[in-house]
Amino acid sequence: MATPAQSRLPTQEHLTDPCVHCGFCLSTCASYRILGTETDSPRGRIHFLKAVEAGELNLAAVADHFDSCLGCYACVTACPSGVRYDQLIAQVRPRLNDLQVRSPWQRLLRQALFALLPYPDRLRWLLAPLRCYGGSWLQTVARRSRLTRLFGPEISAMEALLPPLGPSSFQDGFPLLTPARAPRRARVGLVLGCVQRLFEPEVNAAVVRVLAANGVEVVIPPRQGCCGAVTDHQGETAQTRALAKDLVAAFAKVVGPGKSAGAEPLDAVLVAASGCGHTLKHYHRILERDTPWAEGGRPFAGGVRDVQEFLAELGLSAPLQPLADQPLRAVIHDPCHMIHGQGITAAPRQLLAAIPGLTLTSPLDAGVCCGSAGIYNILQPEIAAQLGEEKCEDLTATQAQLCVSANVGCTLQLQQGFQAAAKPLPVFHPAQLLDYSIRGVGLSRFSPGMASPVSTLGHASRSL
Ligand code: SF4
Ligand code: SF4
Questions:
Q1: I need a surface site. Which of 195, 310, 349, 381 has the fewest CB within 10 A?
Q2: Ligand 2 pocket by C-beta < 6 Å: which residues?
Q3: 16 C-alpha to center of ligand 2: Å?
Q4: Can you give the residue range of the structural domain that contains 370?
């Protein structure tokens, strides 16, 4: 057990000082909404930190109340005093990891997740036997009979999140360079993401097609790994730094004079998962102490854009067609690392509003986390499941016919939440809708749940 002196934080009074304990942040705090306890709210946690800073409290004694935080940053958006809780929790998490106060099972689970999730090749090896299971009758039976609960809530949560796995989950299959299919307007790099390339490979494929159709040349380094988002959000600083260095090196290896993707510099480095985008934009912080990597991290982070942010800035040039022969209504789920972490709200709306016949709406509690939060839905499955259920109800109440989410973790969480819903909504990435619209592919082909009132367009028979 750590002593009070060991658990003291480096003094960051300037971060906790602005809190005036007004409580405006409470209603948007996901953990407070479920647990209902001040100790699991931003205000309560800041109160703890002040006591820890003053040497009056042992951080280890309140570790659970920091582990219950989703790191969604909704409190940062809500706070009128400008409290940077995101910076506070980023400092606390590595300290919590050092204290070693979690249960042996939680430590083992975290180690296993950090050893697997950021490494697509390892994860593919592990998932290969599950390829026949995902989406099969066996999975349906296991879920309905709740057999998976015998293995404990965390394993059960992982099983519930597992989507059907196709051949594209097991290979990236992108060329190093995809040329623009219209007069060239930009040249970008693309980060594939580790979880996204396995569990939502069709999103990256859609992104590449949309970019190429809009006159963007796309460079995809073949040996790229994880950006470090999974470990960064959990305060695993050393592993995050190693992953960040590898990713910067993967791009430097193919772009530059005499390199395989050509000497011309990239206009931006894009990513289609908001959790990854948030971390990539912080490479200057992550690599600041790693000379000479700091030199590479700063311009890399400065060039990172979410795909939607980039396309909205560039402007769509490819003609768009309706997704159905009747008007469609889509509800936008704003991922926390998109709205609170990166401040992006207008870009997805601007892009999707350009699709003929598509109207957009937002849920009532748009700023509240869906419970995904990186690996939170595995580490804290009960709280995450309740948040997922509430979010799905909120999305369904809009009477929309489909849901849009630009983060793979949220998509998996929502798909799981909709499994038990009376009216499940299909969930798409904005890039998928743009891709279908550009190619004239009707939506009912992809989602049996949308058979009514949406019908397939006459031009929807084009092959993928
Ligand atoms: S973090 Fe901000 S909103 Fe929350 S109690 Fe403190 S001052 Fe108020
Ligand atoms: S980051 Fe999210 S869960 Fe954590 S205190 Fe802030 S609002 Fe609550």
A1: 349
A2: 28-31, 42, 45, 69-75, 85
A3: 15
A4: 328-461
